Amino acid sequence: MTLLDGTSIALAPLLPWVFLVPLFVVALAILALAVFRRARGVWLRALAVAVLALALINPSLVQEKREPIKDVAVVVLDASPSQNIGDRRARAEAELERLTERLKAFDDLELRVVRAGDAESGASAINETHLFDALNRAMADVPRRRMAGAVLITDGQVHDVPENLARLAEIGPVHTLLTGNRDEGDRRLAIVQAPAYGLVGKPVELTIRVDDMPRRQSADAAVTLRQDGGPPRTIRVPVGQDFHMELPVNHGGQNVLEMEVEAARQELTLANNRTAVVVNGVRDRLRVLLVSGEPHAGERTWRNLLKADPSVDLVHFTILRPPEKQDGTPIRELSLIAFPIRELFEIKLDEFDLIIFDRYRRRGVLPQMYLENIAEYVQKGGALLEASGQGYATPLSLFRTPLGQVMPAEPTGQAIDRPFKPTVTEVGRRHPVTAGLPGDRPDGEPSWGRWFHQVEVVPGNGAVVMNGADDRPLLILDRVGKGRVAQLASDQMWLWSRGFEGGGPQAELLRRLAHWLMKEPELEENDLRAHVDGNRITVERRSLEPDPRSITLTTPSDETRTLEMTEDRTGRASATVVAGEPGIYRITDGERTALAVVGAVNPPELADVRSTGDRLTGVADETGGGVHWISDTESGVRPGIDVRRTRPDRTQTGNDWIGLRANGDFTVTGVSEVPLLPVGAVLALALGALLMAWRREGR
């Protein structure tokens, strides 16, 4: 039986209850019989029986020594990107400071403050606001009976509200202090539908939408588009409706389309007025034209390498019989296929992605006009690879044709016929085509096999990435107009494919060559790129020459910072930063610009940035908490929000106050026990009652 807090009466029977209960029943029966017969002294006997019964029950007074345990209150501060809008962050920090000082005044309360939604919390933090995850982590080691409640300082845009709100009631009242203003408005631009991939040369369809919140009567809005950092163009998009548009996929790799809608009359932030779509361009089929000037041992190497790639459509012609070779055989009896010169080099020339001349020399098969078409094809953006045979050192060289204006190296007329190992130059170790080739040893001789023939050339333009005999240029890469040209001053790569002296990296080298010629962004030699992994941005710059310039990064909220790059020996410089908000990050070194899109296409954090208590009203109703606007205090609508300690069964919130329940939990450090009926007193009382009863009966 509990009398007061920490004080109770305990029973310690002298005999087991199985014996006591029958004794009590017999005693009560005898007393009842005495009462029925109206015997004298029955009440004195009843008193004696009661005293003896109490003595047998042995009651004692138990006093517990209790040590109070502090209740725990958790304050969760919303540090997500949407808190950067207006005065929200400053208002939240000020309210946190005021609340902390007020709660420190309670001696029986332990305060825990946790920040949620900042960039350091991980990639999801910049896309969504998870306050309840942070709350659960903060009280993971606290029994629910010790929880006084929680206070959320937020703009109300919370994306992890539990579905089962009944469980929240166990932790006490959950109060919300809103950092925004009432009746806010904003405009946003969203991507409704966008494909992740598209075929190069074919447009993909996008669906975008402009919304005004709350809905206004604007008919349309101007949206500015900029693809891959190019010139801007403007379109009109209806407000509140899906709008369909096309995005041309101009090249392989990432095609980035930036979009920005004009500001509305009422705006909270321009961060959700901008968005970007990243479509990865893939080539349906790579059409390659391979022209072999004459049969030779390496011809099959080119064919096998190109045919091994299922994405390559190869058209291969070998000139077996030049026009000057006449033996009188009638044309109708020849089994050779006539070279479709006009169809390939005039009608369908622009359909090819890459043209390869392998050991070709002038033999009257291709008229000058068609060679001039190829030079023009390169100038307009085509790709040409020339593998020089013995003929390149003679007057029959392709350099003596209109193609000479796009060739990067001029023959001296000499050929080198002795063993040598191709080596990667210092520039080549910075060029993505030859950097890190398997078998290359920067500090020694490469491990691949030797070649035995090389045409001596003098480079005029481009970058020499590999040398041959006597450190003569072997592989030269050049940009000509909008196109690209690669020249290999030897026809001996087939030795590597045959495994001579261990072979070499011919497959990897030719793969990189073809991708560089096709302008794949991953193989750009002078390039600035940005890679996004969660909320981390890795900026990477490639250059053939050391580049000491720093990088400027502009955040979605138009803040700028300078990045210092760390360069390695391959010409690759990099820096990593943590993104603090979702959106488009612009990176530039003054010459080149790269874009990084952080977060989801339509991050919930920016979907609706208006401050609202709607998401947390259900939490407040279920737990007994309240939803209050901090801005009401600033505007003078009411005084500051007070904090009170309340009993668990009382109301936990009011118009200008919030309550944290006082649970009164404790630990017992000791117990003292005092008998209520001393033995001597009990015996004296019982004997006295019996004597008086006998005396009464004796009269």
Helix content: 10-25%
The end-to-end distance, rounded to whole angstroms, is 42 Å
Biggest sheet details: 8 strands, mixed
What is the overall shape?
A: elongated
Mean of pLDDT: 82
Radius of gyration: 44 Å
Percentage of residues in strands: 25-35%
- Contiguous low-pLDDT stretches (5 residues minimum) are none
What structural class do you assign from the helix and strand content?
A: alpha/beta
Number of strands: 37
Number of helices: 13
Question: How would you characterize this protein structure?
Answer:
- InterPro entries: Class_I_gatase-like (IPR029062).
- This is Glutamine amidotransferase domain-containing protein.
- The protein has 699 residues and is an alpha/beta fold.
- Helix content is 21%, strand content 33%.
- The protein has 13 helices and 37 strands.
- Strands 17-16-18-19-25-24-23-21 form an eight-stranded mixed β-sheet. Strands 5-4-6-7-34 form a five-stranded parallel β-sheet, sandwiched between helices.
- Helix 1 packs antiparallel against helix 2 (42-57) and helix 2 runs antiparallel to helix 13 (679-698).
- The radius of gyration is 44 Å and the shape is elongated.
- The model has no long low-confidence stretch (mean pLDDT 82).
